[in-house]
């Protein structure tokens, strides 16, 4: 105590360093004394204070680098904590009974992402689809954005005008809560989007800013032409076909506003602590709907600094960790899932106990498609070797398709080592998947071609990209067989890799690309709608008929889900990539106690011989002596005799 007083009078180099623990504690005590707990029962207050005491230091630690210089930080902290108290007394739909802390590591997890209005009509009719989710075996449902958004183009709902109101076309807030309850009753978790990089230009904050309210003008990034030009020199263009650069001129304000995505999606200004606090309050409202996972949309873009790329900046991590600290205090049972579709090293930085528990795995997704096109697995192996491992008790969300485009994001140092030119190889993949490469099986559509650097991404459904569409058109049973095998192969890897496998709506029904969007002027310029179709009875009928390609796809996916859920080894945390001495094969092993799962996949349309295993080992040594069984078809496999892998075949091997 005395030392501290003394140090305040005569700062020395050593004691000028802030005593963090002391300051965090002191700020917390001051705030606790100022907060209004009158709405809580004494029991509620005890629980709340306990959580606050546990989490406050982490929150304080993240907020200091962001807002330590703001003279009014104490005020903002008080507003923030008071909002936690208000939240604490509010009712939410009952939680899922499964209390396992690390539920996301279970082999029971299988996810699907759906648009409410495309799978059903609205939220209340989606309740009628719960039996479909159950029969498919999914227990994790991501509902694509369903909040109030501008009429017409709203970037598929990712331009949000009010986080607290469900879009009237989909129903009411009560409908959403009822849906959450209906899902929870069946043990299905609900995932909602937390779109916190931007709001729509019709959000009440944006409207207030437009009307000249300074308080809300500070919520966004407004600037003159010169500044916008300077930022544009270092910032990546995400939607170059919408507009060049990252800014949109606002005639109302006669200035430029930051719009990373569409011009009606205004980026929030997190250098203003009021924005952080206001967005946390919106986040709590999302949680009140009963969600179990929040998907952090476009999280790489949230912090900007001039002269940088304004993506993945260190302070973006402080900010997300601060949100996570708020979550841990207010709603610790909810977890974050990261949507970082960026360089793999940067993807991994968002994953951790103090940041995002779950993360999309865009690297594996892109490289599975890459190896199907090249029939080679080197880039896949070497990239996963470098990036697949993530901290304990965090989990990948593995997927093959999603509502967005496919971008070819791997680390060029890896492709360089393999003597591949990254730029050329991406060009090849774009050509290949958009049907501009002779002999390609894929029927994809280009997305956001950049006229300056030639960059481009790819859209299309799983079935169309894997070759089903072309095979049907050519009326060629062999091509069709290959295409369906590719789907089996991709899913066979996706369901077996460590992580939560996430289906995209229609993957399981074998739906093909759909061009209806071209006749809708609000969608025609966004080719992602080619894989966002409204489902009809016919889609389900085709998938129910085993004689159709769709039926074959539906069946193989359903079977894989059942096998995954019936075998605990799919929850194994021990994981190893296995080289089988062939550039066409991909293999990995998972181990749980004495149980091993060995997956072997042949990415080519040829019979491929097994090469030498590392250290001269044999397959039996990997799995254990005795006969093995391929879980996918229940056939016994004599491992010593296994020397050739059939075209596009996959094995899920365990000891019989
Ligand atoms: C995310 C979404 C994408 C959207 C963008 C802007 O990447 O997945 O669909 O366009 O964010 O919100
Ligand atoms: C995302 C990604 C980008 C993706 C886009 C949606 O946030 O960073 O690569 O394609 O938004 O299309």
UniProtKB/TrEMBL annotation:
GO MF: amylosucrase activity
Every Glycosyl hydrolase family 13 catalytic domain range: 113-564
InterPro entries linked: Amylosucrase, GH, GH13_cat_dom, Glyco_hydro_b, O16G_dom_2
GO biological process terms held by the UniProt record: carbohydrate metabolic process
Transmembrane portions of the chain: none
Superkingdom classification of source: Bacteria
Name of protein: Amylosucrase
């Amino acid at each position: 105590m005395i030392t501290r007083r003394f140090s305040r009078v005569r700062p020395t180099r050593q004691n000028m360093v802030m005593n963090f623990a002391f300051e965090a504690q002191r700020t917390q005590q001051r705030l606790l004394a100022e907060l209004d707990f009158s709405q809580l029962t004494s029991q509620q207050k005890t629980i709340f204070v306990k959580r606050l005491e546990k989490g406050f230091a982490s929150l304080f630690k993240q907020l200091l680098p962001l807002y330590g210089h703001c003279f009014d930080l104490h005020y903002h902290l008080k507003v923030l904590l008071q909002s936690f108290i208000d939240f604490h007394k509010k009712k939410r739909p009952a939680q899922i009974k499964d209390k396992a802390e690390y539920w996301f590591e279970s082999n029971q997890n299988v996810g699907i992402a759906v648009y409410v209005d495309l799978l059903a009509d609205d939220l209340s009719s989606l309740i009628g689809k719960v039996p479909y989710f159950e029969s498919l075996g999914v227990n994790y449902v991501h509902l694509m954005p369903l909040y109030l958004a501008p009429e017409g183009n709203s970037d598929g709902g990712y331009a949000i005008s009010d986080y607290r109101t469900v879009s009237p076309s989909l129903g009411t807030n009560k409908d959403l809560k009822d849906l959450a309850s209906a899902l929870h009753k069946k043990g299905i978790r609900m995932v909602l989007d937390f779109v916190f990089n931007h709001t729509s230009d019709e959000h009440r904050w944006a409207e207030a800013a437009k009307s000249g309210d300074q308080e809300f003008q500070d919520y966004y990034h407004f600037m003159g032409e010169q500044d916008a030009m300077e930022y544009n020199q270092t910032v990546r263009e995400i939607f170059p076909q919408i507009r060049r650069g990252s800014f949109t001129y606002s005639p109302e304000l006669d200035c430029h506003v930051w719009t990373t995505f569409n011009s009606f999606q205004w980026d929030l200004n997190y250098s203003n602590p009021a924005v952080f606090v206001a967005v946390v309050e919106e986040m709590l409202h999302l949680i009140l709907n009963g969600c179990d996972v929040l998907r952090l949309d476009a999280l790489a873009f949230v912090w900007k600094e001039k002269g940088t790329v304004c993506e993945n900046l260190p302070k973006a991590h402080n900010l997300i960790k601060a949100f996570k600290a708020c979550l841990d205090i207010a709603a610790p049972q909810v977890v974050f899932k990261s949507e970082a579709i960026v360089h793999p090293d940067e993807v991994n930085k968002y994953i951790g106990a103090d940041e995002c528990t779950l993360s999309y795995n865009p690297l594996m997704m892109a490289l599975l498609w890459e190896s199907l096109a090249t029939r080679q697995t080197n880039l896949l192996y070497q990239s996963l070797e470098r990036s697949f491992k993530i901290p304990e008790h965090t989990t990948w969300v593995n997927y093959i398709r999603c509502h967005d485009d496919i971008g070819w994001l791997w680390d060029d140092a890896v492709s360089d080592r393999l003597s591949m030119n990254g730029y050329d190889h991406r060009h090849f993949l774009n050509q290949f998947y958009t049907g501009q490469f002779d002999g390609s099986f894929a029927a994809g559509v280009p997305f956001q071609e950049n006229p300056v650097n030639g960059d481009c991404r790819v859209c299309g459904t799983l079935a169309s990209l894997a070759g089903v569409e072309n095979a049907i058109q050519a009326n060629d049973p062999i091509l069709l067989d290959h295409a369906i095998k590719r789907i089996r192969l991709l899913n066979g890897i996706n369901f077996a890799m460590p992580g939560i496998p996430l289906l995209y709506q229609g993957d399981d029904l074998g739906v093909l690309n759909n061009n209806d969007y071209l006749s809708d002027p609000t969608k025609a310029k966004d080719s992602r709608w080619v894989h966002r179709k409204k489902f009809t009875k016919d889609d389900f009928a085709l998938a129910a008929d085993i004689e159709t390609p769709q039926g074959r796809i539906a069946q193989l996916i359903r079977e894989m889900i059942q096998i995954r859920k019936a075998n605990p080894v799919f929850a194994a945390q021990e994981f190893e990539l296995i080289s089988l001495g062939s550039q066409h094969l991909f293999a990995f092993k998972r181990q749980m106690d004495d149980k091993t799962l060995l997956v072997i996949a042949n990415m080519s349309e040829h019979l491929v011989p097994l090469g030498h295993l590392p250290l001269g080992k044999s397959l039996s040594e990997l799995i254990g002596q005795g006969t093995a069984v391929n879980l996918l078809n229940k056939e016994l496999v004599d491992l010593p005799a296994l020397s050739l892998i059939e075209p596009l075949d996959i094995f899920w091997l365990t000891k019989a």
